[in-house]
Design brief:
This protein has helices spanning about 10-20, 75-90; strands at about 30, 45-50, 55, 60-70, 95, 100-115, 120-130. Strands 1, 2, 3, 4, 5, 6 and 7 form a seven-stranded mixed beta sheet that branches. The protein is about 25% helix and about 40% strand. The protein has a single domain (about 10-130), classed as STM4215-like. This is Tail terminator.
Length: about 140
């Protein structure tokens, strides 16, 4: 018997955004806590990390997610971060994946410059409400 679990919001977002971006600016999605070694940021990198919050009801998960965009070119970081924001806010709600439904999204902090000595970095924080369980 398989035990149901909450959906992995990081993976759900990364896979969904990869489809939505469809190679735009060769953008890469990344969910590992550590950034890739020796990444030169020739293509923008979208780093997706859950930072906290929890379930408000048994099957309703309210995830707070940081999404940072790293790029070699400042305009690429800005464009990708704003596109992520538009996708998450306008198109992610009501998305169904693996038996779970994204009920709603909220912007906690809009995309803004964050310090990074190696690349241009633009980050934002979102709350993503996911309803349902995975098998």
């Amino acid at each position: 018997m398989t035990t149901p679990t909450h959906a992995d919001v990081e993976t759900l977002l990364a896979e969904w955004l990869a489809v939505r971006f469809d190679g735009w600016l060769r953008t890469k999605m990344w969910t590992d806590p550590r950034l890739p070694d020796n990444w030169q940021f020739a293509a923008p990198l979208v780093h997706i990390q859950r930072t906290g919050d929890g379930d408000t009801r048994l099957t309703l998960d309210a995830a707070i997610v940081d999404i940072d965009v790293y790029a070699r070119i400042a305009d690429n970081a800005r464009q990708v971060a704003e596109r992520v924001r538009s996708e998450v806010r306008l198109h992610l709600p009501q998305h169904v994946a693996g038996g779970v439904v994204v009920q709603a999204t909220q912007t906690i902090t809009a995309p803004a410059w964050r310090p990074d000595p190696t690349a241009f970095r633009r980050g934002a924080t979102y709350r993503v409400f996911v309803h349902g369980m995975t098998a």
